[in-house]
Amino acid sequence: MTTPRDDRRRSPDYSPLNWLLLLPVVIPLVPPLFNAVEPRLFGVPLFYWLQLAFIVLGVTTTTLVYRATRRNR
Amino acid sequence: MKTTEIVIFTILFLVVSGMGFLAARWRRPNDLASLNEWGLGGRSFGSWITWFLIGGDLYTAYTFVAVPALIFGAGAMGFYAVPYTVVVYPMVMLVLVRLWSVSHVHNLVTPADFVRVRFGSPTLALLVAITGIVATMPYIALQLIGIEAVLKTMGLTGDLPLIVAFAILAAYTYQSGLRAPALIAFVKDSLIYLVILVAIIYIPAKLGGMGSVFDAAKAKFDAAGSGGITLNANNQLQYVTLALGSALALFLYPHSVTGILASRNRNVIKRNMSALPAYSLLLGLIALLGYMAIAAGITPIGKDNNTIVPRLFDAMFPDWFAGVAFAAVGIGALVPAAIMSIAAANLFSRNIYKEYVNRNATAAQEATVSKVASLVVKVGAVLCILLIDPQFSIDLQLIGGVIILQTLPSVGLGLYTRWFHRGGLIAGWAAGMAAGMLLLYNISNPATDHAHFGGSAFPLAQLGFDTKITVYAGFLALIVNLVVAVLGTFVARAFRSSDGPDGTRPEDYFADQGDPRVHELETTAPAA
Asked: Min CA distance, B297 vs chain A (Å)?
């Protein structure tokens, strides 16, 4: 169940993929990226559709990290 | 009175209440008389149940009513709920699995339990527990505002319907504990998804497409001279800090932690971090209902913007479907109200009753105290709404978000580091609370006729800066808290003040289901 910790400084939760999680935390908090009306998508201003699209970014990265780091029992 | 709507609403409400009572038998435990069973549903929920439970817990009826109301009144600023619920999951994913592990190894039920064992300080744990209770109480009261908005729109006035609804809720929570909201959440969320999908297709079609909806909103804000469908130069920082601050606060709320600890293993939590954003999408679509209300020329009942969404449904949908939509909001209030009252009650029984009143309390005594406390909490919430101006609850909830954030250094950072001294954390908490109150006190809002506590956007001009930029008050208070906690730790070390013992070991933070250190609960519930 628990993997032996041969490297004492590195936690068993560590994975290089964890860094991916920074993307969906940082990008949605940078207003210049999305604070505009044009281009619209189906009449919806950029401000709204792009921020909704960030949800996909969040789902993709958390899914990747989950799949890479899940523990098989 | 709108008979069709009321009949549909009542039928759905009664069906759900019946489920709440039957939930005590669901995944039947040998004995409900412990907090692991009553308060955490046997700690055995898999991915699906956890998804419905936490989704129903975090995305409350009040959220579904208040976010569109905010968009209706102020425009783009109200959309902060979307980045807030996007950034939160990747941010907390790795933190929550640590919390799950350490809580299972040490049999912890509340965030304050963790602080108690990590920093060896009953005082710090008490502060965290009280902060949690105080932040949660107005949140429960707000759920009543969600129900009230719906009842008002159906023409049901007076306090009786509200009291009946909450009495039923209190009764089945008392009997079934966390199993009740977990089971009801299935119905609540299915109804909400159905209603919103229909609304988001049907209503814009009737209003001439999304393009004209946004044009109507823009015209309204231009004419009013305030708000707008995008942010301006002065509120961008507020938008970002409010989204980030709210995200940092979300999983510090005791009811969120309850949902996490009720899950079966670490994989369930990680998986949910990528599944829960489905609710964020839903919330984003619901937010746009605020603009649709503008385009449809909807006016609130009185000055209560929270009636905007029910009024929109009432005007747009046929009566029977409006009844379904109202039931979705009404039932949507029950799930979080139940979980919040359970979480607040657990804080009381574990960190106040057991710590200070009866040190040798048995598991059964703990559960009994929690059950009674959950009733007291709900009665308190009803009284809050009935006796005091509801606006007071809204103000309190705003304060709640700021104060719960002040537990971040001890609960959130505490999961990663034991560097802080307990004295430093207590000083930081006190400083953060004081700063938060002071900042909120100095925010006025002419629109709601508030000289103080008028919102969460603190104008930096008040600190002497020559600017119109505003920033989230909770965020500033958290910075004060962190600075004082760090300085306090240095001071405590310099004076060799004694620090509490750390009851956890590094490997406790990685334990998973099946690990011999993780408490296996005796339950007849199937593992799958």
From this structure: 19
B79-100 pLDDT, tens digit per residue, is 999 999 999 999 999 899 999 9
Shortest CA distance to B260 belongs to which of B344, B343, B137? B343
* CB-nearest partner of B91 from A2, A25, A30: A25
B209, closest residue in chain A (CA to CA): A43
Domain count, chain B: 1
Per-residue exposure over B339-352, b if at least 16 CB sit within 10 Å of its own CB, e if not: bbbbbbbbbbbbbb
Q: How far apart are CA A54 and CA A60, in angstroms?
A: 10
- Determine, yes or no, domain membership for B195: yes
> Residue B293 is encoded by which pair of tokens?
């209300």
Assess if residue B516 is contained within a domain. Answer: no
**What CATH number corresponds to the domain at position B192?**
1.20.1730.10
Q: Encode B312-336: b = buried (16+ Cβ within 10 Å), e = exposed.
A: bbbebbeeebbbbbbbbbbbbbbbb
Does residue B522 fall inside a structural domain? Answer: no
Question: Strand, coil or helix: what is A41?
Answer: strand
Quickly tell me which residue has 């976010």 as its tokens: B67
**Is the separation of the CB atoms in B100 and B509 below 8 Å?**
no
Q: Is A52 close to B91, i.e. CB distance below 8 A?
A: no
**Contacting residues of B for A42, CB less than 8 Å apart:** 210-211
Question: Given a cut of 60, is residue A8 above it in pLDDT?
Answer: no
Task: Classify residue B145: in a domain, yes or no.
Answer: yes
pLDDT single digits (tens) A10-67: 677 788 888 888 999 999 999 999 998 889 888 899 999 999 999 999 999 999 988 8
Report CA B249 to chain centroid distance, whole Å: 9
CB contact under 8 A, A70 and B267: yes
Measure the N-to-C terminal CA separation of chain B; round to a whole number of Å.
47
d(CA B307, CA B315): 12
CA angle A15, A19, A20 (to 5 degrees): 110
Token reading at B323: 């009844």
Q: For the CA atoms of B320, B323, B328, B329, what is the dihedral angle to 10 degrees?
A: 150
Q: B190 near B325, Cβ under 8 Å? A: no
Of B387, B7, B376, B378, give the one whose Cα is nearest residue B159.
B387
Question: Where in the sequence is the domain holding B488, given as residue range(s)?
Answer: 3-510
B56: CB partners within 8 A, 6+ apart: B181, B184, B185, B188, B189, B332, B335, B336, B339
Q: Which residues of A touch B (CB under 8 A)?
A: 1-2, 5, 11-13, 18, 21-25, 28-31, 35-37, 40, 42-45, 47-48, 51-52, 54-55, 57-59, 61-63, 65-66, 69-71, 73
A8 CB neighbours in chain B (<8 A) are none
